[in-house]
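Same chain as my last thread, 444 residues:
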Amino acid sequence: MDAATNLKYLITPGGSLQGRLRVPGDKSISHRSIMLSAIAEGTTHIRGFLEGADSLATLAAFREMGVEIQGPEHGELSVKGVGLRGLRQPERPLDMGNSGTAMRLLAGLLAGQRFPATLVGDASLSRRPMRRVTAPLTEMGAQVLTSEAGSAPLHIQPVSSLQGIDYHLPVASAQVKSCLMLAGLYAQGDTCITETAPTRDHTERMLTAFGYEVSRSGSRICLKGGGRLSSCDLEIPADISSAAFFMVGASIAHGSDILLESVGINPTRVGIINILRDMGANIDLTDKRMAGGEPVADIRVRSARLRGIRIPLDQVPLAIDEFPVIFVAAACADGETILTGAEELRVKESDRIQVMADGLKHLGIEAEPRADGIRILGGELGSTDGGDGIHAHSDHRIAMSFAIAGLRARGPVEVHDCANVETSFPGFARLAAQAGLQIEQEVV
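reply #2:
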């Protein structure tokens, strides 16, 4: 569906979530699978690829740069790698759509190429901050021009060489870390990044799967430029960020019992599980195994009485994408939930702290936004009946979160600006309806 389409969700309250579900492939890993297989030597076969707008934008960008890609078809594709130096200059700007991950990671990869390139995005992406990657890239010798506001479009010019740097991340960000690691592939000497807190390590794991040496000592990650990547077979697990909506939904809807199949449980991504368990959720992990270098498991979730908590600071970077739906869990919990240390939520696809607070207040929940977090007092969710509905501000995770909130509302819930759900979770409404959410879509 065209992201410009005005799509709204209509949710009738009640019901429970039941059955076995398989959510789409992990978006973060899907992006990286295209990027690394494109610059590897040989043909890489990928299964479980997310066929959402964000990851398809990454795929299209590499086709523009001369990479032969067959598929995707039912999540399977083959990428004929061109090696580190085999990409071609694109004939037009590379459109990243709504994907901050694609833009920030590609900025690093393109900084080391011998041709100019421009990265553009939609209106939402064009407002998001890019200096967090362009500043350290400049330290490496890259030439990247932004708008006056430090946002897209990014104009990347070729330079004679990049130099490895020793960089301490000022804030926990897997996107910045991965951007610098990709630039480091093309740099002279070592590129080392020290993290302030653990962030998702998909790039490190996947580089290793492609045979590229990455060393880690505590919070410090290093790689040496000028190596080579060798093709491999990749299996992408189901996305825990997409599974999170059903984990919360099953927790808050009475009588629910679902099994989420083959979900990625990377230790840097399991904040959603840890936080919900702290709140009293009934979550079991079974059939733990490895797939494509990533740990996966089946996740069973049954309804439970949740309690408000102070979210531990060490869990914040492990659940940064899942907080909108965690806020819904907090709204249904007994007592008060407090989040701090999450200022990153202010600069996502929307200001997720403010937008979620506004929506929860619309449903009668006491929600106090703060500079780096929020305070939510659990209560009874109301309805949008008689009002103009909740506005998701074209943020896919906001839209899905309030759809899930409808399970516990007193009356109908109407959510506007939902078209961008297709960027990360194609078929969300259909799968949610199969599981028991009473949801309808309407194009207006």
